[in-house]
Fold these 4 entries.
Entry 1:
Amino acid sequence: MSSGPPEQGVPTASSAEMSPSTPARTSSPTLTDETDVTDVTDVTDVTAAGPFLDGPSALHWRTSLLLVSAFVTVLLASVTLLFPVPYVVLEPGPAINTLGKESGHPLITVKGHTTYPAKGSLDLTTVTVTGGPDSRLSVYQVLGGWFDPARAVVPLQVMYPPGETIESSRKENEQEMVSSQESATVAALEELGILVPTTLTVYSVDPGTPPSTLRPKDELLAIDGKPIVNLEGLATILSRVRPGKTVAVTVRRNGARAVVRTPTRRWEDGRTILGIRVDPTFRPPIDVKISIDNVGGPSAGTMFALGLIDLLTPGDLTGGRHIAGTGTIDAAGGVGPIGGIQQKLVGARDAGATWFLAPRENCGEVVGHVPDGLRVVSIDTLASAHDAVRRIAANRDLGSLPACTR
């Protein structure tokens, strides 16, 4: 930190050098018959006896000023370090085994289906966030995060958009956690071939051409006579329809069945779509409960799904290995990116994991930040994560497992 401009009133080197033994560099008076040497000496004495001191007194005075300046500088620096700034710090949080217990009870419990004991670990990973709109960090705390490679400093507005509080964020994270558990349950059961009956209701109709004739709250029953049993079934039916073709959609509208003819559209990736957003209601044939405290957000979905698969599968899915991971999941089994991947890698290794399952879309943040002793596998679906765990357990074809290379 700069100590600021020179203090006013501190003697400069040139001033301090002016003394009776060193004549001042003033215009020398002309010696004439009317001026004698004594007069010249008197002029020099007056100049040297100005406001500047010399000798022990001057040294004591300068030392005192320097000490006061140093004290003020340290005081200002200390106050600055305590000043609140708009940043939060991310650091590795605990890794929690989805096959273990939470508060003395199994984290995942199942009713209506046989379960099997598991010996390994399938850890979900977390990130601890310090700071927030209601609890600003000081410069000192933020500097600690900047100089610690295991932590990250991010702007406050990235974690908490304007108007959002820590409490509102907590409630949102809790809801996302509940939604991720539901999606994980459906995806896991579908991965094991267990059909989950689903009701698909139109939530909204997207603007665009050609316009859809479907309406919000329509319950989708069939397309061209083919029953719609779940999201995957809807996607399969539409995959066989040419974009732009008009289809007959059987719906339940206002409590009565009706057939609505509506045009399809081409999505950006070439898929055929109806131009609607649906709200699925799932009816799993078995009862699954996931209990976890003080953890929010959707990023544990993939590990919840793998934990449930292990419990419903004979034998030990992990082969006793310690595997950690992260990733959101949707009901169709798609794995999505998450935040804080670098902190989660550190947390997984600190917990003893030797393998880590990372969403493919996070690979750019993984490369160059993998702790020693941890190997990362790139995944993009629950099926790819399931396959990776089975191969790790069997110690088979490990060299061909997809890794993060970019």
Entry 2:
Amino acid sequence: MPAQPDASPVYSYLGPVGTFTWTALNQAPEAVGGEWRSVNNVGEALDDVISGRSIGAMIAIENSVEGGVSATQDALASIPGLRITGEYLVRVDFDLVARPGTALADVTTVAAHPVAYAQTHLWLDKAVPTHAHLPATSNVAAPTALLNGSPADAAVAPHGITQHLALDTLAEHIGDNQNAVTRFVMVSRSGRIPERTGADKTSIIVELPSDAAGSLLDMLEQFATRGVNMSLLESRPIGDELGRYRFVIDLDGHVHDERVADALLGLKRFSPRVTFLGSYPRADRRPVVLESRYRDEVFIEARDWLRGILSGEPDGEDAVEDAGEALPGLVVRELDDAAPGQHGADDQGPQAG
């Protein structure tokens, strides 16, 4: 049953307490004071949102080492009505923990979430070369199971987990990449788009109309010709047949930016399916830097110029004086920018001779 209107807002996350998802949820201002519902996987978290049990779900979407989280990308592509409203970055730092009294030399089986194992296996192969891997459902489920009869001797867990569980730390900072970061997003059913800040990101999923030569280039040109940078581009199989893929894309900018909106219109004209996942502030708050020709006012000015043509207003060199406020500076600037040879061979500037 959906939560009552006067009840505390509920947020779902991959738990239990102490997971990286829990750490990310701690960064979300809207979740402060709400009820946090621990779930076992991304599908359960999103189902909470769709059913109304939760108003938001914090889920991992990208890792700096492993790339996109396929379960999240596929779920966002297949479940309609979901929107990303914010993103959060969490540094990924792992320890190897065990029951009190266990030594590193005693370890033969290591419990770990598959993603955590992939990011620590080089250290484990060196420190515990004969170990076996026992998969776990989360980064905290692995160490928790040690206290509940797990056959594992040790577990890969988030750094600091011994503050929550009665375990010993056998080794700290065992990640193969000390700069690893996981990106999380808050997902809800809200249709409200956060206000643009100048440091924003837009997430979409796009399917190509066919696998014909040039189709991918057609998609990429929608962004390149409008100065829209892609910070993420990953393909995922659609699943209906071999060779059919959809693309998960993050754009630098906000849907309220003229260049981003124009690029989305271009995509919609040729793609059979464009899924808008949301525009939201970047976690790093880094402003998007643009060339002057891609600023909002340039797109607006060009559109006003076209409106003038369609409405029968004069255009061209003979109309510069008549254009006035209807086309502020546009034609004059086009003339100023013209190449020297465009005015004829006899047209020599004041420096000629």
Entry 3:
Amino acid sequence: MTDLLDRTVAAALAKFRPPPRLPLSQWIERHLRLPEGLVAKPGPIRLWPFQREIADAITDPEIERVTVKKCVRVGYTTLLTGATASYVANEPAPILTLLPTEDDCRNYIVSDLEPIFDASPTVAGILATAADETGRNTIRHRRFPGGSLKIVAARSPRNLRAHTVRILLIDEEDAMEVTNEGDALDLAIKRTLSFPNRKIIRGSTPTDADTSTICREYEASDQRVREFRCVECKEFAHCETFFNQHDRWIDGITPWIHGKPAQGNLTFGVCGTYRGEPDFDSVLSMTTLAPPQVKLTNAAGPDDPMTTVEPFFLKGGRFYTYFTSTPAAYIHAVPTR
């Protein structure tokens, strides 16, 4: 009888045990689902390796700011939705999502946020659109137990007034314009000052190197990049994945080198991608140059110095990777225009 009572009490107390704290990447893959009609392959979300590292940084309590300088179509918006869901379910707080325009806000809610929440049992129904007892819920302002979520367009900075948040999520900030009402980015960040444990997540595809805020923030960070080993020279390679829209032949590549050493070859080229990462088994073009052959980008005036290569074909609608690899001290800059 005593053993049965002990087991019963232990089972009852176990119900009050809080769930284990998981890195955001594990939590997303365990609890979130992509609905039918949103993606080609609905079901549990499966992150690529580079996405896991970004996700885990977002919820790392030792990190206050995460800056993501990215290309298009890398799943950043889905990571923001996953971070929102995690905070709503595990660490309720005032959350603000800042997007460039009103249309962007509506499209994000209808096409990403609501479908993923509705398809995921862990968070389904938490962000209900029906007004609560205060009558304050709207499509872009949701209240939930312990916190709230507000989605604001940068073109309406006045909507940031009298609003305090702990979690700030920003998408495509380089598309945001400063209006007569002020700088929405600056105003949004100031809304987090009341919280010592605030979190500021900024991400964007750069538009112009001279005016880009995401480039400036990235330069002020620890500038982490994901590197891969080249299958030919075994050196670490710097890779940039890009989406090719149309069928086209390529007969020249610009290495984007701003400084070069006296010795040490530079290898660069284009390869395919597999499951979101460079596929060095499908190299389409690869060229190795000695330092005297490498043209500096900033020495060519308005036109970038292009290196002629054997023509190769890129299919439209596919991702490819541009890579550079060298054991020497070349200064490489990724194009942002």
Entry 4:
Amino acid sequence: MGQEYTTTGAGPVETSTYAPLTPVPAERRAFGTSDAFALWFSLGIGLLVAQAGALLVPGLSLPHALAAIVIGTAIGVVLLALAGVVGTDTGLAAMSSLRPTLGLRGASVPAVLNAIQLVGWGSFEIIVMRDSAEALAKQFFHFSMPLVWTLIFGALATLLAVSGPLSFVQRFLRTWGIWLLLGGTGWLTWNLLSKHDLGALLSRPGTGEMAFGAGIDLVVAMPLSWLPLIADYTHFGKSAGGAFRGTLLGYGIANLWFYALGAVYGLAAGGGDALLTVAFAQAGGGIALFLILIDETDNAFADIHSAAVSTGTFWARCARWSRSSSRWASTRTSCC
């Protein structure tokens, strides 16, 4: 991790580039438009997104589901990209940027709540990866070891989170991670178009179990789920415009693509998300799901990293309160 120095009353103090309460200085902002695109394209593609897309059908017909995906993505991604500009403008992580508005004590509340919900999201991502690896193992090797998959993916996501977003994006995503994603997603798309009658799926009526507005809400929910942590990554952006464009295009394309894949695969598999993982495991000999599974760790990585940042924001305040209490106690002892 990069280091920088800040000055306090006790002299210069070395702080990490990832210190949650310290604005990232301009010379350490390494993310350009292409970095933001790679990160948010990667985070927008995931098995959880496809499963959410599969929930749109058969309640909605496929044309209505695709329309809901387009409208919901446009709304959600614009809001997400605008929220990311705050991080670039201030240089602060998401929870730290709330302090000027909510104050020190007030900002601690969303920081704690954010850390708790990110632990939940991270756990759920690991469960999704475990289930996908389990489906591949059963499909091709006829064995089952869910506990081992849980430990492997949990350790891998934690390792990536410890390395930090700068290393993750520039050493993993930009070099070969994004190509795994494009290869896996392209393979799934080709398999879908070559083996399923898209015209017949488009003409199949919906059951009416889901309202069109509810479908839009389901799509909007996915990009908005990243709102409490997007600034944890955009505060490394070189410019607000670059961060906005990279997020808008990267997450927008990925969200449209994978929601649509989830809806079409889900409908072809019989409707809903129950059989989606099995359908992905069978597509293209399971290679596409394997490629996406490798990169799926980035979602858990983001949850773990941002949970640590939120915890650090709250913990820093607790540490200062502890030091203040210690100084007060020492003063009282001296006076006595």
